[in-house]
Amino acid sequence: MTRETTSAKPPGRPRAGIDAVVFAATLKTVHKLGYAGATMDRIAAAAGVAKTTIYRRWPSKGALITDCLVDTFGPLPPMPGSRAEYLAAAIDLAATKISEPGVGAAFAGVFVDAVSDAGLREILSTRLQAPYLRALQDALGEPEDRILLFVDITVGTLLHRMGMTGAPMVEADVAALTEMILRHFAERA
Amino acid sequence: MTRETTSAKPPGRPRAGIDAVVFAATLKTVHKLGYAGATMDRIAAAAGVAKTTIYRRWPSKGALITDCLVDTFGPLPPMPGSRAEYLAAAIDLAATKISEPGVGAAFAGVFVDAVSDAGLREILSTRLQAPYLRALQDALGEPEDRILLFVDITVGTLLHRMGMTGAPMVEADVAALTEMILRHFAERA
DNA sequence: ACAATTTCGCTACCAGTGGTAGCGATACCG
DNA sequence: CGGTATCGCTACCACTGGTAGCGAAATTGT
User: Fold this and answer.
1) How confident is residue B189, by pLDDT bands cut at 50, 70 and 90?
2) Average pLDDT of B157-176?
3) What is the pLDDT of residue A112?
4) Does B128 touch chain A (CB under 8 A)?
5) In chain B, positions 59-98, which contact chain A (CB-CB < 8 Å)?
6) B144-165 and B103-115 helices cross at what angle (nearest 10)?
7) Terminal CA-CA length for chain A
8) Which residue has better confidence, A105 or B96?
9) What predicted TM-score, i.e. pTM, was given to this entire model?
10) Is B177 in the A-facing interface, judged by CB distances under 8 Å?
11) How distant is the alpha carbon of residue A107 from its chain centre?
């Protein structure tokens, strides 16, 4: 009954469960000091963990931030209802999460690091974007390019506001954005 | 006839006109190596100019990139015509310029540096965003928050696509984006 | 022609930053 | 208790943005 492929417990000291602590420390540090100010040393110190320990789990700062975002956003919850309700809920989810302390700055930071780093872009695309893309495609039954445009508009707008003003978008503007997007994506392509 | 305030020529070696060369070198380097890879040393080398000379004119890398973008975008040309035509032309201008080699990556890079740097955010906001904001406000007669939302949607979407894929948005998607924005901003608030 | 002044290019340098190597200590399994 | 893998720690490396100080060049006024 020893299932080696998945649950064979290897010998040696087991890894401590530090993911949650590190993720929380990451967001807190980014929130306080900004993306550039959130040094790996500082994140490690805030988590009460050695920097080398962090590098044993995540190969780079970008990978850590990406995993932190994946953990924060979580899976797209099942949202029954009309197409419009589904889209509105997705936009609202994005806006809410990006508004949480540190999330917007972390997202924007890793996003732009990715512009210059193909490896990181791969990580970001695979781990963070792809799951949502598939979920949206399954739920809406639209061609991929339309889903991509929807994501670009939603996330891009929210991040741009965050970057320019340093503060998340106010509710009224999110409502206006939602209305505009709904009018365009209400019916299928 | 000596107008001291503006044109009194000071003694000493005059400054060489290197702005154009440096701007071109900046965009070329960013295009080839990405924002993070575009070192000040490399930009200086590409321009055939000493790094210290660059730092005598621009106080920081962010300021250089910002001025480079200001130079690239230039003033918003007068665009007579209907409201819709004006908006469409503005979107098209943004999409065209951001598609130019290096411009999108430079924009995204300085944009995210600004998230963590209040001083740079001030420079970016004052030198790059404010002029366009005023021009759009004058031309459209809309309240500021609606103009800001328009800019967030337009620039944010284009930059997000650039960041995620590494390539500028294709024409068909720009057209879809334009149509969606026009439907929302066609009539005054 | 000559001093004054300012900029130029250059080398050297500094404080951080992401990331790595190697150490003894520690926690777990058999 | 022996084997193994992880932990925290210190030290270290390559590189980056940015600065200081130097002699050389270019311009002005006398």
Assistant:
1) low
2) 92
3) 76
4) no
5) none
6) 110
7) 52
8) B96
9) 0.89
10) yes
11) 6
The SS3 assignment for B182 reads helix
Alpha-carbon distance A38 to A16, whole Å?
Answer: 23
pLDDT confidence of residue B19: 97
Place of tokens 């506001």: A161
Residues of chain A with pLDDT under 50: 1-5
Please give the distance of CA A33 from its chain centroid, rounded to a whole number: 19
What per-residue string of b and e applies to B64-78 under the rule 16 or more CB within 10 Å gives b?
bbbbbbeebbeebee
Q: Could you read off the pLDDT of A84-137 as tens digits, one per residue?
A: 999 999 999 999 999 999 999 899 888 877 877 888 888 888 999 999 999 999
DSSP per-residue letters across A17-60 = --HHHHHHHHHHHHHHHHHHH--HHHHHHHHTS-HHHHHHH-SS
**Nearest Cα to Cα of residue A27 among A107, A124, A90:** A107
- Burial (0-12, 13-18, 19+ Cβ within 10 Å), B186: exposed
- Other CB atoms within a 10 A radius of the CB of residue B21 amount to 14
Q: Which two tokens stand for residue B60?
A: 């920081």
Give the mean model confidence (pLDDT) for residues B154-166. 90
In this prediction, residue A39 carries a pLDDT of 97
From the CA of B144 to the C1' of D25: give the distance in Å.
51
| Yes or no, beta carbons of A153 and B180 under 8 Å apart | yes
- CA dist B55 and B26 (Å) reads 14
